[in-house]
Amino acid sequence: MARGPLARREPTQRVAVIDIGSNSIRLVVFDRPWRAFVAIFNEKVLCGLGRGLGETGRLNPDGIALALPNLVRFARLAEAMDVGRLDLFATAAVRDATDGASFVAEVERRCGHRVRILSGEEEARLSAQGVVAGIPDADGLAGDLGGGSLELVEIDRGRPGDHATLALGPFRLMERFRREPARTIAEIDAALGATPWLDRLRGRTFYPVGGAWRGLARIRMAQIDHPLRIIHTYAVARKELEALSRLIGTMSARSLAQLAGLSRRRIETLPLAAIVLERVLRHMRPKRVVFSAYGLREGYMFDLLDAGERRRDPLIAAAEDIARREGRFGDLGDDLVRWTDALFAGEGPETARLRHAACHLSDLAWRSHPDYRAEQAMLHMLRAPFVGLDHPGRAFLAVTAYARYEGIPEPENLDRALSLLEPDARRDAIRLGLALRLAYTISGGARDILALARLEMDEGSPRLVLPDEIRVPGGDAVERRFNALARSFDAAGARILS
Predict the structure, then answer these.
(1) Residue in 78, 76, 75, 82 with CA at minimum distance from that of residue 9
(2) Which of 207, 370, 431, 442 stands 20 to 30 A from 190 (CA)?
(3) Which residues pair with residue 462 across a beta bridge?
(4) Which strands sit side by side in the sheet containing 140-145, from one edge to the other?
(5) Long-range CB contacts for residues 450-458, cutoff 8 Å, separation at least 24
(6) What average pLDDT does range 413-429 have in this prediction?
(7) How far apart, in whole angstroms, are the C-alpha atoms of residue 273 and residue 266?
(8) pLDDT-derived band of residue 497, with 50, 70 and 90 as boundaries?
(9) How far is CA 191 from the centre of its chain?
(10) CA proximity to 188, closest of 180, 212, 51
(11) Alpha-carbon distance 357 to 359, whole Å?
């Protein structure tokens, strides 16, 4: 049966972004403009619009032929999702090509939406905003490598500073490199050397952004069998990444094709992307390298938020939202933070932050089968699309979640990724999980009981106080779970007081 046009419903809060880059075009649809925004749809096509631009000054004809119908598809998909806002923007290749304006006019005619051509300054600023959106305490240098340009931006404790747009994208360098590799490397070094403010960032953190550099992170993870395959906040020592970049820069396409997780089109630009990264690392000599999965598109979303929303912690914002939507008893996070305060007197700010997130997420797995709740909660913490969270932080939340549902964990029951956690942090995570397990046993999720019952510390030993006003006796389960918590403190003299 023939069907009519798709019915248009009321617009949602969803925001769609179509990014027309030098190598790829991409549609990302975000759930809504808030601090912990989530991509609910993400699709890319590697068109190579910027291939050959350095030689011809024009967009690649085959890239145009591939991009135009896919951009129409992206626009129609976004409209069918009833997005409240749809924005299209183009970056270096379209900005610099002599036929960029005519290409944009054709995109606008076919898609029915305006295309904004970002200046180099705007592209750099938004890329840095993306890094800050995903790593709020970022401090150092963000580098976003596209097919046509490299955006370098200073980040000073979460605030973008000096920036530069350098014509060092792989498509710009490709033809020259094939003819004169040594001279091309010298040109890369000269461009970096002509950016004097980079010198003052030596020894700080470098944050690589962009699909080609994410490919290098995947290769490194596979090379060392890193236990958590999440690019965002993956940290690598500079010398290790320099060595890998030098190696990839010399490999043939045939050799690269043997590496897992690389597409044919990505292989074309990867060696030059590796060379550019190696030269940046040599010049900047960062203390460490932390990969960011957030970049230009996420920076664009971050830019839509008001100042107050941008200041929120994205991890805590996400945890509170999940608790409100999915918790059996609503969000008990703040009550559980107070309940566990006495156990963690003197904790550092990062442990406090993780404890707050864990308290909000403590009822995450209640819908799972009881035999699998601990495992499901642990894996969710490890793999959920949280930002503002490094890999050890994920492991902390995962250990806490397992102990909350299962008690003191046996090593064979824990995911290998938890090896990322230092022993003291693992101890704290287990204690927190056991305290949360006890809280739900005592209260059944009732706020009134949690407000009256309390945990105290007495010369290094936990003490549970259950006043008469609670009107709910302790019972065997409470005693067993309190004793498990006490053992985690090596406390023989722990007590339950009524």
Answers:
(1) 82
(2) 207
(3) 457
(4) 159-166, 150-156, 140-145, 205-209, 288-290, 235-236
(5) 450/332, 450/335, 450/336, 450/339, 451/335, 453/339, 454/339, 454/342, 455/339, 455/340, 455/342, 455/343, 456/342, 457/342, 457/343, 457/345, 458/495
(6) 90
(7) 10
(8) low
(9) 30
(10) 180
(11) 5
SS3 of 290-351: the string is ECCCCCHHHHHHHHHCCHHHHHCCHHHHHHHHHHHHHCECECCHHHHHHHHHHHHCCCCHHH
464-484: pLDDT as tens digits: 999 888 877 778 899 999 999
DSSP assignment of 399-414, as one string? HHHHHHHHSSPPGGGS
Model's pTM, two decimal places? 0.93
Tokens of 160: 């973008």
Q: What is the pLDDT of residue 418?
A: 84
396-402: average pLDDT: 96
Question: What is d(CA 401, CA 138) in angstroms, rounded to the nearest whole number?
Answer: 27
Contacts of residue 348, defined as CB under 8 A and 6 or more positions apart, other chains included, come to none
Torsion of CA 340, 342, 347, 353, to 10 degrees: 30
What are the pLDDT digits (tens) for 271-316?
999 999 999 999 999 999 999 999 999 999 999 999 999 999 999 9
Quick check: helix, strand or coil at residue 432?
helix
